[in-house]
Give the backbone structure.
Amino acid sequence: MAKKINKKPIDEQTKPKVNKGLEGFEVSINSFGEIVSTKSIDEINAFLDEHLPDRKIPKKGEEPEQH
């Protein structure tokens, strides 16, 4: 079976589609095993607070979840 040749440039192959609020966000691990990112934790938390609902806090008029 012949291999398919991908004609896209390498940069387009490796970059995933991301939300505009997270453009430029990269995470890596340095030689000491520390996680290094291009955005601060506060910026990441602000983005998550905007775009994701908190499942632990019920909205007005809703019953809290029972486990």
Q: What stands out?
A: The chain has a mean pLDDT of 81. The two ends are 51 Å apart (CA to CA). Helices lie at 10-14, 41-51.
